[in-house]
Backbone:
C-alpha cells in the first residue's frame, strides 16, 4: 500500500495539534498548581480539579503525565510539587497570560471577558505577537 503525501502531511498537522494541545494543558496545570501553592501553601489533586473544572480522575491522570514530563512530583496522599522545570513553565505561562489580559483590556475588552478570552489566546501567540501586545499595552497605559 503506497503512502499518500497528503495523508502524511495531514498526519503531521494532527500530530502537531495534539502535541500543542498537550502543552496547553501542561501550562494550564502548572500555572494553577503555582497559584494554589501561593494561595494555600500546598496543592492537592482535589483542589486542582475544582480549580480547573475537571474530574478528580482527569486531574490525577494529567498530574501523572506531568510527573512523567518532569514538571511535578507527588506521592499518594501528598501535595503536588512543581519541579524547577515546572516552576519555569508556570512563570512563563503566567507572564504570557498577563500580557494577553493587559492587551485585551487596553483595546477596550472588559476585564472579566479579557480574563476568560485570554485562556484560549495565550497558548497560540508567537513570541513576536506577545512582544507587540506588551509594547502596545505599555504605550497605551502610560
Residues:
Amino acid at each position: 500500500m503506497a503512502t499518500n503525501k497528503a495523508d502524511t502531511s495531514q498526519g503531521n498537522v494532527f500530530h502537531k495539534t495534539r502535541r500543542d494541545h498537550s502543552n496547553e494543558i501542561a501550562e494550564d496545570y502548572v500555572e494553577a498548581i503555582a497559584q494554589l501553592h501561593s494561595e494555600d501553601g500546598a496543592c492537592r489533586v482535589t483542589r486542582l480539579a475544582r480549580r480547573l473544572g475537571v474530574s478528580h480522575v482527569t486531574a490525577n491522570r494529567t498530574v501523572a503525565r506531568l510527573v512523567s514530563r518532569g514538571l511535578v512530583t507527588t506521592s499518594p496522599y501528598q501535595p503536588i510539587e512543581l519541579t524547577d522545570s515546572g516552576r519555569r513553565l508556570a512563570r512563563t505561562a503566567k507572564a504570557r497570560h498577563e500580557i494577553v489580559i493587559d492587551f485585551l483590556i487596553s483595546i477596550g475588552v472588559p476585564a472579566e471577558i479579557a480574563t476568560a478570552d485570554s485562556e484560549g489566546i495565550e497558548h497560540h501567540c508567537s513570541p513576536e505577537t506577545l512582544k507587540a501586545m506588551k509594547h502596545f499595552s505599555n504605550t497605551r497605559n502610560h
User: Anything to note?
Assistant: The beta strands are 72-73, 81-82. Helices lie at 5-40, 45-52, 56-68, 84-106, 111-121, 127-141. Residues 7 and 13 are 10 Å apart (CA to CA). The mean pLDDT is 90.
